[in-house]
Amino acid sequence: MPHATIAEQANQVYGNFDTHFYHGQDEVGKDGVLRINGKFRAESKNPDFLPEWDPRQRFEPLTFHEYKDPAFRANPELPNLFPKSAANETVVRKITPKLGSEITGVQLSQLSDAGKDELALLVAQRGVVVFREQDFAQYGPKFATEYGRHFGKLHVHQTSGAPKGHDELHITFRRPDRKEFNRVFNDNTSSVGFHTDVSYELQPPSYTFFSVLDGPDGGGDTLFSDSLTAFERLSPAFQEFLSTLHVVHSSKEQAENSRVQGGIQRRAPVTHIHPLVRYHPVLKKKTLFVNSSFSRRIVELKKPESDHLLQFLYNLVNNTHDLQLRAKWEPGTVTIWDNRRVHHSALIDWEQPILRHAFRITPQGERPIEDPKFYNDPNYYPSSLTLDQ
Ligand SMILES: O=C(O)CCC(=O)C(=O)O
Ligand SMILES: [Fe+2]
After folding, report:
1. Is residue 6 scored above 90 in pLDDT?
2. Is residue 290 part of a domain?
3. pLDDT for 255-265, tens place per residue?
4. H helices within the chain, ranges in order?
5. Which atom of ligand 1 is nearest to the CA of 358?
6. What is the count of structural domains for the chain?
7. Probe ligand 1: pick from 20, 155, 172, 214, max atoms within 8 Å of CB?
């Protein structure tokens, strides 16, 4: 009979499987910095992207800033992203009719600023775009962060490890070790944990870049679900009711999950209140902005009502296959998603000790709003809360 350790219990409350520093398995350097254990570091083909955790790092709370969405600058014909001269080499394929495109023949690293603006528009329109045969990672972490800055002010994660000197990169490093698999399945039947990234922040990410550097052959796919179509599936009366509601999102459980495994806390945990139905300023449509990893409570409802309604919405987004796609990774794949529109989940479906190493670039977007009149409004109500209030 398996017993959940304290760390596993913390994982379950949070319902998501980040990679953390693991006390007793990883290493503490003479400089006090926490690193992946040397045996696994040696197996990495991408040492520039290895994470480390510096327990002395402390970042100030994130504050409001105006978001300039690059999609608003884009030429809707996308001539810089898909130049006519390259038409024969470029293949664009829909993954599902409404969600996701897969593209070969466009080299992201070579895009002009106008091309990047068009990329943002395409990602908003398709929700998820999978780019094959990219040379992006070869340019290293500095290039990746500078590239990401075009799309917004980069987010620094409260607990995750980052390559030295590149705090804004978010690294996933699943060790080539059976313990990595056991950690997930010892007291669980599934690795699926749908979420939108860091929805607890005042300004959660917009266009999010993810690139798998090393991974299993045919596995470790990423699942995506479209919360825009999810909202459109609901009846008008129910849509109207949901549009009156707000949700508390919290980073406390994720922080606790890091702490119990011996990891770090770079910024104080936060809670923020966001509208349950979010207005997407580029698409001028509404999405369901609620997720099973970070949403905690519907402000306007009593707890049993809130629990019941949240479960219904999680089930809709997490388990409705005709809202979803499965992105497969190949060497050189870069996937970009609109974190305001889609939810995603990692999948841990390999059992052999195989390394999976990825990096994420996470530009912050606008503060979520239910009505366009609040767009970039610093005084938008309801106000945010901090945990100590
Ligand atoms: O590992 C994956 O496939 C996704 C990880 C994830 O959720 C993230 O980095 O935001
Ligand atoms: Fe994520």
Report:
1. no
2. yes
3. 998 888 888 89
4. 6-14, 38-43, 113-126, 140-149, 178-185, 227-232, 236-242, 252-260, 303-319
5. 1
6. 1
7. 172
